[in-house]
Specification:
CATH topology: Four Helix Bundle (Hemerythrin (Met), subunit A)
Strand order of the largest sheet: 1-2
Helix content: 55-70%
Number of strands: 4
Number of helices: 5
Number of domains: 1
CATH architecture: Up-down Bundle
Distance between the termini: 62 Å
Strand content: 5-15%
Oligomer: single chain
Order of helices and strands: HEHHEEHHE
CATH class: Mainly Alpha
Length: about 180
């Protein structure tokens, strides 16, 4: 028999609200940047790939905060002793994602757009990792829920992200296969 969930404290509620605010601000600013870059890439002749799986990416990112809030407020999640570790992993994921966005520059979008004849980016984290942005997202889907003790959300969204990203990475690799490698 499970024990009843303890009511959420104001402090914990404030941390959750702050996290959700940061998450929303990040995603909105990323969508604005992406829309700007999409226009520039299309003007340069870019072609989009992976349209059929993109709605799943959107759904994953839209449902995630709802699941997190539900589990924290009603699911009885409790912040554990490793919360500071999970915060560190989440912060590292942010650094990785923004270094990937910086390295791609105007080529970074939430969609897969490829300019024919362009060279592959091999600077920043792309020197060592083929898809650093996707690794950052995977780390976020694991670390942020575990920061709040929401292990169910971490498990479900990590697995869902792995599934969606495996499709996306295959599609992106096929789209990029014809590009030259930077010297």
């Amino acid at each position: 028999m499970s024990t009843p969930a303890e009511p959420i404290t104001w402090g914990r509620f404030a941390w959750l609200a702050l996290y959700l605010f940061v998450l929303a601000a990040q995603r909105v600013s990323e969508l604005v940047l992406s829309a700007h870059n999409v226009r520039r890439l299309i003007a340069r002749g870019a072609r989009e790939h992976g349209r059929t799986h993109f709605p799943y990416v959107v759904a994953l990112h839209a449902i995630y905060p709802i699941s997190l809030v539900g589990e924290v407020l009603m699911g009885g999640s409790q912040t554990g002793p490793f919360a500071s570790v999970w915060l560190g992993v989440w912060l590292a994921a942010q650094a990785l994602r923004y270094s990937a966005i910086w390295a791609l520059g105007e080529r970074w979008t939430v969609r897969i757009l490829v300019v024919p004849g362009a060279s592959l980016v091999r600077r920043g984290p792309y020197r060592w990792i083929a898809h650093p942005n996707y690794l950052a997202v995977a780390l976020e889907f694991l670390a942020a829920p575990l920061l709040f003790g929401a292990w169910r959300t971490a498990l479900v969204f990590s697995l869902a992200s792995l599934t969606v990203m495996s499709v996306r990475i295959r599609c992106e690799n096929r789209a990029l296969a014809g590009l030259e490698t930077e010297p």
